[in-house]
Amino acid sequence: MTKLYYAKDADPSLIKSRKVAVIGYGSQGHAHALNLRDSGVDVRIGLRENSSSASKAKEAGFRVLSNAEAAAEADLIMLLLPDTEQARVYNEEIAPQLVEGDAIFFAHGFNIRYQTITPPQGIDVAMVAPKGPGHLVRRTYTEGGGVPSLIAVENDATGKAMALALSYADAIGATRAGVLETTFKEETETDLFGEQVVLCGGLTELVQAGFETLTEAGYQPESAYFECLHELKLIVDLMYEQGISGMRFSISDTAEYGSLTRGPRVISDSVREEMRRILTEIQDGTFANEWIEENKKGRSNYHRLQEDGKKHPVEAIGAKLREMMPFITAGKKRLEDISGG
To answer: How far is 177 from 170, CA to CA, in rounded Å?
Structure first.
């Protein structure tokens, strides 16, 4: 059975007895740091020299140090940099500062799972991963709630790593919603699979393919945009709030019958087989090695694919139509204000 933890299971004194260094002050970094501080935790921020985030952290009242200085001063380090930056920063600036009994935490398991970071045996290694963006982690905390989070321990050097991670999760508000116990392996592999196959990769390809099919058949691109992209939020919101069955209950019988009979023709056995191949590439390290190598070579393929995506016709028509919908652009502006631009 899955193990779930709540506030009653956490000991807030454990994290309050630590000196915490939050490395990075982006989406997750600012939320973790602010929530920890508001929970009575001693927090300092570690950033690279000339970081654009330094002024934001200082304005929020934090002491801003170099990554190495923050790691040396702290006995719990939460590494909240992009996956591709973590290994270099850890090896060059954090690892030399670690002493036995310290703890290093992550919000995603990529670098531990694929062994680009290998902390020494005397260090607690754990993960606290909120299942939501940083602005939501912060907002729900200030409202008295929290975002559900995952928790895992990779190395329990002190025998207290799980209790410490749970205390950290409590301090950022996660135990108000529920904390699910997992492993670094499971979190990393399921996260990558979800991003690639459903949430980001699969979904965007499905939208673009639907748009192309309609426009190639002679339908107006505006109509194709509304039917294949704009209304997607309405359906996702229903699924988010009520599950798939609840969504189907809320749509028309015609839409539901079409969903039940035609959906399996789109996500066919051949598509499911490709999903399994992608999962295997995640499990055996093929994807991780490819992405690491892409970064070493300057991301040329990554940037080319980015630019190709921006040139898709659905982007141009979408930009035009969204200008007609101030309720969307207003929401975008609010999000930029919250995240700092």
So the answer is: 10
Calpha distance 25→81 (Å, rounded): 8
Active-site residue (options: 108, 135, 303, 312): 108
Closest CA to 168 of 224, 225, 208, 126: 126
Return the pLDDT at 16: 98
d(CA 118, CA 120): 7
pTM above 0.85, yes or no: yes
Is the Cβ–Cβ distance between 54 and 47 less than 8 Å? Answer: yes
Q: Is-catalytic flag, 108?
A: yes
Cα dihedral 274, 275, 278, 284 sign: negative
Place of tokens 């028309």: 252
Give residue 339's pLDDT: 47
Q: Specify whether the CB–CB gap between 23 and 67 falls below 8 A.
A: yes
Q: What is the pLDDT of residues 117-175, one digit of tens each?
A: 999 999 999 999 999 999 999 999 999 999 999 999 999 999 999 999 999 999 999 99
- Among candidate residues 83, 84, 80, the one with its CA nearest the CA of residue 67: 80
How many C-beta neighbours within 10 Å does residue 320 have? 12
